[in-house]
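Q: Predict the bound structure with magnesium ion.
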Amino acid sequence: MKKIAIIIVAAGQGRRAGEGLPKQYRLIAGKAMLRRTIEGVISALPDALVQVVIGADDHADYNAAMEGIHILPTVFGGASRQLSVYNGLQAIECHSPEFVLIHDAARPFLTTELVSNVTAALESGANAVIPAIPIVDTLNKVQGTRIAGLVDRSSLFAIQTPQGFDFAALMAAHKAAKGGTFTDDGSIMEAAGHPVEICAGDERNFKVTHPHDFKKAEAQIMNELGDIRTGTGYDVHRFEEGEYLWLCGVKIPFTKALKGHSDADVGLHALTDALLSAVAAGDIGTHFPPTEEKWRGAASDMFIKKAAMIIRDRGGVISNVAVCLICEKPKIGPQNEAMTARIAALLGIAPERVSVQATTTEKLGFTGREEGIAAQATATVRLPWQAI
Ligand code: MG
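A: Predicted complex:
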């Protein structure tokens, strides 16, 4: 595999998409558009160098949107798209990539398949390749408000990004094009005399431009995550001697402890099973057998994080989780907020998607006799249809 760099052009101010934040930092289904774009790039090309070109005033917005993602330090854009790309090319020149892909931040729907179409053409010797889709609408010339003849659409294509290039050839073409007003890199290569090939683009990889495009993007995401799953989990741990216990990731001073192979966090165990059951991925014992010595005393954080990772790896999202703790004591109410926040942090979702409830059993049964604590949980998960 050749060394590949990808430049994400995110320096525009995106005024057409409405007031406020530049559009690449606006949320689409709860996530900044730029973050979606970059996550797509990383998942398609995990070994590529990723260079983002941002606006000089956008550092705070960028840092907030990209928390936890580690790629090359940003560079600032120039006065035009052409200059912004050139700044990006200069920034990665020291890494000597063989191929470079240039991608618009405003196209958050690039797929691994689309990226493969581009890299495959480069691997087979093309110096410049751009994804293109045939125009399906009928096209007319218009004079004033009148139609003035049909346009033959058979030779017309709509051009997308990522566009792929031989790095050295694109660098030279950009130097030669200095002072020009090119709006894409394919045109710069063409002007430098390179043949520019097309490969199959993707209808879904549309450019988010106008305010209504955000609605379209959200609908596309929800449609792609249309496989809605529900899972349930149940767990019980008995009391033993002790001075504190763990419930839903929070350490609570108490007159007893909970007995278990791990930290015996009955709430997180029920929740882990609910998440695993939503995606039919076994149960907590499948992934962390209690016979294995290494899980002795383990913090249950790792169980629930593993369940969340399984869902993420399948391209899914967690819509909501709910856990109900069943006990006479300790009192859960005072800990509710801390438990909700902890679960939200462990799963990487908003606290508004986490519910923690508690109930007693009116002194009936083992929980009523204060012999232990039970917990039941549910989880709703959205998966892509193709994940089945
Ligand atoms: Mg358990």
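A: The longest helix spans residues 211-224.
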